[in-house]
Amino acid sequence: MKDYPNVMILDHPLIQHKITMLRDKNTGTAEFRNIVSEIAMLMGFEAMRDLDTVDIEIETPLEKTTSPVIAGRKQAIIPILRAGLGMTDGILSLVPTAKVGHVGMYRDPVTHEPHEYYCKLPDPIEERVIIVTDPMLATGGSAADSIKLIKERGGKKIKFMCIIAAPEGVKVLAEAHPDVQIYIGHLDRQLNENAYICPGLGDAGDRIFGTK
Ligand code: PRP
Ligand code: URA
Questions:
Q1: CA of 109: how far to CAs of 40, 112, 115, 150, 196, in Å?
Q2: Number of domains in the chain
Q3: Residues 172-189 pLDDT 10s
Q4: Which domain holds residue 22?
């Protein structure tokens, strides 16, 4: 697969271990949901490596000093409904003051084309560092269209985080939005004839919410 400068695969052993547990069809809903959240937290740690900091003055038990804190309260997490919701709490545990927006997209089961059904974003959005979450990047349609929508509403500094990606989806998203940094937990082999990721983990939304 062609290398894209805006794509980063987070092949940390802890992330890979947890992805293996997600893939296992015997992993039940509660455990699956917890692991998705844990992976999002681990990925968020890397995705926020470049957050701005500012030095503040504090006093330790020994002396006065200056020490860095995250500058401003300017992050936004935007899960793509439904499955992206499963990643929200893990990232919020790192940046509890982040605002949360929602984009609703569903994939037509026959054409696999994304359809928007909801969009509510923090206002204003322009200055925020935005992390868009969705565990699955399959054809890339849902992520590319969601990010287009967020940009149309004023979003500028956008990152996208997924747990599993197919090469087809990475190409679509990386080429549609070269300014968006894309973080991937694992790059899988390919899509099947139903546009499901193989080996994948099945339907992420159904597994998180127990709807199948
Ligand atoms: C899944 C997944 C992504 C999308 C990925 O959502 O959570 O949003 O499919 O596919 P794509 O890259 O081919 O667009 P789905 O449409 O099944 O909705 P759900 O989260 O409500 O189950
Ligand atoms: N959506 C999912 O939840 N899983 C896939 O493999 C593809 C799209």
A1: 27, 5, 11, 24, 11
A2: 1
A3: 999 999 999 999 999 999
A4: 7-47+74-209
